[in-house]
Amino acid sequence: MDAMEPEPLQPEVLDEDGDVDMHAETNASFSWARDAPPVQGAFRLRCGHTYHMTCLRTWFQQKTRCPSCQQEFGKVVGKQPRLGTFSWHCENFTLPGHPDAVKTIVIQFMFPEGIDDEGKSYAGRKPKGYLPCNAQGIILLELFKVAFRRRVMFGMGESMTFSSYRPTFNIHIKTSSSGGETKHGYPDETYFQRSLRELKANGVILLTHLHGDHCYGLFGLLQTAALEGRKDPLLIVGPQGLRTMVETVLLSSGGWYSEESFQINYLEIPNTGTPGGESLVGPFGSGPRGLGFHPDRCRHAAAVQLGVLAGLRIQAVPLVHGLPDWGYVLTEPDRPGKLNAAKALELGIPAKSRMLGQLKQGQTVRLDDGSMVSPAQVLGPTIPGRTVAILQDTSDASAAIEPCRGAACVVHEATFEDGMETEAIGKGHSTSTMAARFAASCQA
Ligand SMILES: [Zn+2]
Ligand SMILES: [Zn+2]
Ligand SMILES: [Zn+2]
Predict the structure, then answer these.
(1) Ligand 1 center to residue 47 CA distance, Å?
(2) pLDDT tens sequence across 196-216
(3) What CA–CA distance (Å, rounded) separates 252 from 17?
(4) CA 429 to CA 413: how far, in whole Å?
(5) What is the pLDDT of residues 389-428, one digit of tens each?
(6) What is the 321 CA–ligand 3 centroid distance (Å)?
(7) Which of 104, 110, 103, 113 is nearest to 87 (CA)?
(8) How many angstroms separate the CA atoms of 258 and 267, rounded?
(9) Spacing, Cα 404 to ligand 2 middle (Å)
(10) Which residues of the chain carry a pLDDT beneath 70?
(11) Torsion angle of the four alpha carbons 205, 210, 212, 217, in this order, in degrees rounded to the nearest 10
């Protein structure tokens, strides 16, 4: 079984089982070619049936079902052309601003010319998009796939540059690998965060490991959120095997219909930590299978950078336990320094002026007399964001020491009482003294 385990941070694998929605999708979506372009003139529907593009186009003007199996493709949720492909592959180069990602995901969109639902003809288009091949890039790739299937990734519009009616981006895509933000390229520090907001994908659940007491509650939570009318997508982050577990349970209880509730996306942190590395799993401890991360392998393992999710910078650190187990270190963004009101008044900014708020947000303001006041003149030193770490179920959290240094709060388990260290380690847990030792080692 081990050799079959997916390595979720490698998009090749994600693509093969990339059907995020299980059987619940009824939206139009077409050929999912990977590297090779689809056969000239032919399109494969998601149900697997292939037709000539021209035949399909005529057919879809009358009916929106597959001519063979009657699967419905007609639920219009966006104006994106019904015929189009989304394919992607990895290339060996690094995007500016993403030195951690040695590869880059290149997405190729392809829309042949056609006629929209209102009967207006549009021009074809073949835009490209670039994402770093790291955790952030793969999260976005997954969300883009869903948006594409929902036909909301593109809209239709008049292009000023090309003076033609054609598919236009609804979601910001990096169409260039370089050139910075103004040229729709990299580097762009806040692109990931902005995209998540655009895709309304800011909800995140972090699961440490798949022992029942740490994740069975998830199903009740999903059910409650759906009943309460949640519509925004949710991202669940956790160890390898997470997706299989969640989908199996949801499928067994009648399936998960994202159109009626919300989209669930997964980020499985591979057992290698960073993609392409060596597996951190090794025989250790006395769990039922003893298949957790091995102390020797994770002692010096680097934290996995998950980027900024729900407004917090998140790092995952491998913890020694009976199953692959991730601790999470969450850091707030840095905040602007304290405003010196007396200094501001002295520079000519009246008390309670709107300008005080603008300065606090980092903007330079212009006074009535034309003089400028910059934030640096009135703000104290930047207040660094606080760090909170959640380290659940572990006998050795060494990999978390550096990321937790100076943390405002560390939650570390202590299942066994003092003096039971041998039993604790044997079961992948800690004593109160071991937890205290960890806190001392990172000065938290
Ligand atoms: Zn079919
Ligand atoms: Zn556990
Ligand atoms: Zn536990």
Answers:
(1) 5
(2) 877 766 688 999 999 999 999
(3) 19
(4) 8
(5) 999 999 999 999 999 998 998 999 999 999 999 999 988 9
(6) 10
(7) 110
(8) 17
(9) 21
(10) 1-42, 46, 61-64, 72-78, 159-163, 200-202, 275, 284-290
(11) 10
- 3-class DSSP assignment, residue 269: strand
Indicate the DSSP class of residue 182.
G
Fold annotation for 8-198:
Enolase-like; domain 1 (3.30.390)
Active site residue 21: no
CATH for the 203-334+384-441 domain, from 3.30.70.920, 3.40.50.2300, 3.60.15.10, 3.30.420.40: 3.60.15.10
Looking at this predicted complex, what is its ipTM?
0.64
How many angstroms separate the alpha carbon of residue 138 from the centre of ligand 3? 29
Q: Which ligand is nearest to the CA of 292?
A: 2
CB atoms within 10 A of CB 418: 12
What length is written for the chain? Answer: 444
Amino acid at 408: A
Structure tokens at 443: 């000065």
What's the 34 CA to ligand 1 centre distance in angstroms? 20
Which of 35, 213, 368, 369 is flagged as catalytic?
213
Q: Which ligand is nearest to the CA of 59?
A: 1
Token pair 């005529």 is found at: 58
280, 277, 235, 224 alpha-carbon torsion, rounded to 10°:
-20
List the domain boundaries for the chain. Answer: 8-198, 203-334+384-441, 341-378
What tokens appear for 125 in the block? 């288009």
Q: What is the dihedral of CA 11, 16, 18, 22, to 10 degrees?
A: -160
Three-state secondary-structure class, residue 403: helix
Task: Output the DSSP codes for 185-209.
Answer: -S--TTHHHHHHHHTT--EEEE---
Nearest ligand, measured from the Cα of 413? 3
